[in-house]
Amino acid sequence: MAVRSRKWMILVATIWIQAFTGTNFDFSSYSSTLKSVLGISQLQLNYLSVASDMGKAFGWCSGVFLMYFPLWVVMFMAAFFGFFGYALQWLVIKQVISLPYFLVFLLCLIAGCSITWFNTVCFVLCIRNFPSNRALALSLTISFNGVSAALYTLIANAINPKDDTLYLFLNALVPLLASCLALIPIIRQRPLQLSTYTINQDPFIFIVLNVLAVITGLYLLLLNSLSSETLRARTLLLGALILLFRPLCLPGIVCDRNWGFRTNSSLVDLSDPELHTELIEKDQSNSLNIEPFSAINKEGLFEKVMEKGRLTMLGEEHPARLLVCRWDFWLYYVAYFCGGTIGLIYSNNLGQITQSLGYNSKISAVVTLYSSFSFFGRLFSAAPDFLLGKVNFARTGWLAVALVPTPIAFFLLAVSGSEVVLHASTAMIGLSSGFVFSAAVSITSELFGPNSAGINHNILITNIPIGSLLYGLLAALVYDSNVTSSVDKNVLQEAIVCMGRDCYMQTFICWGCISLLGLISSFLLFLRTRPAYDDHETNRN
Questions:
Q1: Residue 466 half-sphere exposure, CB side, CA atoms within 13 Å?
Q2: What is the pLDDT of residue 65?
Q3: What is the Cβ-side half-sphere exposure of residue 414, based on CA atoms within 13 angstroms?
Q4: What is the largest CA-CA distance in the chain?
Q5: Given CA atoms 209, 214, 217, 222 in this order, what sign does their dihedral have?
Q6: 3-state secondary structure of 97
Q7: Model confidence, pTM
Q8: What does the UniProt entry say about where the protein is found (predicted)?
Q9: Range(s) for CATH 1.20.1250.20 in the chain?
């Protein structure tokens, strides 16, 4: 019983880490001030955002360190990277010290590394402690990374609502404090002891934890706009912290009391590779029955493309060399690159987008809106696991559906600059990209093997720094080109600010077309992997 309770303590500690370490989501809250202090162009500001995202390319280093050091050591290394990178940036933005642009770029890179290292620690904790329900654990914990911007806005408003530089100070200090808070349950972690009772009871606890998570998200979304006053912000912050600590009560109650509650065993994937030493081989007769393309004339080009190199079963291990030779991986890569990553770059530019449309006082509210809906998108990524056995729909199909709102949102932004459209489009993009970020870990594990998921996922997210560079470069060039008009030009201290819809209209059109490509790629991935998912479901039943 104590071991069962301890694993839930670790899950709650993982939630705290994720909730307070999504420091890249509040970049828009202080980017305009940073741009002004450094006296740089929008293109140079974009390179700082790229540097932060480039840190994700070094996520594999954390996996290497985990081979030689305990989890808590890697966690505090991540906290140190963030403290060092953000604290020096805070001193720069407060004009206490002066650093050349190149060193600020390096600080952003170091700070970006910390985010990926924290994520790796959380992934490992979830996989080790919930081998039979790792998808539920991952989607729940990753979702809380989406509320970081809302929490940081509350904390900043509780201290001084008019000081944008506080975000950098909080980015440096809060993750370190969260690491200290999570240290005890991580150190006391013991080898997992699986039993039928815990496997059957886990899904019910996950349902309750997801309900609490939805309440937390709604609380931050609906009440964050009321935090402009210091006293009110402190009250709301206290309520948010109570909600974050509330899950501590649930695992103890459920584990200490035998309610005799029987959960639906369909929530537990009994064919999980972690529970079985070998995968069920495909039965040729079954594959003939469920193969959707077997009855189609394969002479056509489309049919040949759909058949060539297609995955025949889920969970098969793919080392890096085999992974990059898979067509399915590159369709997946393009879907992520043109779908989820473009939403992240949109969030990085939210400060300038909102400012250019004339809603400078609404920047924090718009950033919070994106953060909150990103949280709900991440939370919704658990839907395939909760509906397992009830709805037979491939997880790659869910991915395709989740990417539908993104192009719609960008085209809406291109045709209208109203505040309503800005809020609605931001919510849609946040919901879509949040789903992709959370679901990607489970999809990578299912398609290319759970044991190789750590390395393969780090290969997948190399698209983030590439997208940050290309999409951000496009936005910055369009932004700076529209500053040349004297009508649309405003000088804010030493930085030039573009005002008007033209600053981002062409960018929104291009981003909309690119996200359509991501949607098409995800749909092709769904068609190619659907037989493998159908066969997996047949064998599981």
A1: 11
A2: 83
A3: 14
A4: 73
A5: negative
A6: coil
A7: 0.76
A8: Membrane
A9: 1-190+201-257, 312-536
Radius of gyration (Cα) for the chain, nearest Å?
23
CA 374/CA 97 separation, integer angstroms? 35
* CA-closest candidate to residue 336, choices 392, 396, 383, 409: 396
Provide the H-helix boundaries in 283-382.
Answer: 284-290, 301-307, 320-323, 327-335, 341-348, 350-356, 363-380
Q: Give pLDDT, residue 423.
A: 92
Please give the structure tokens belonging to residue 268: 């537990």
Domain 1-190+201-257 in CATH: superfamily? Answer: MFS general substrate transporter like domains (1.20.1250.20)
Going from the first residue of the chain to its last (541 residues), give the mean pLDDT of each consecutive group of 10, the final group possibly shorter: 67 89 79 83 82 76 80 90 92 89 90 86 83 79 83 87 86 91 78 51 79 86 75 88 81 44 40 40 37 45 60 73 83 90 88 84 81 85 76 84 93 89 92 88 81 76 86 85 56 62 88 93 89 74 64
Q: What is the model's pLDDT at position 486?
A: 36
> What is residue 492's three-state secondary structure?
strand
DSSP letter (8 states) at residue 388: T
Topology annotation, domain 312-536: Growth Hormone; Chain: A; (1.20.1250)
Q: Contact at 8 Å (CB) between 200 and 265? A: yes
CB distance 323 to 455 below 8 Å: no
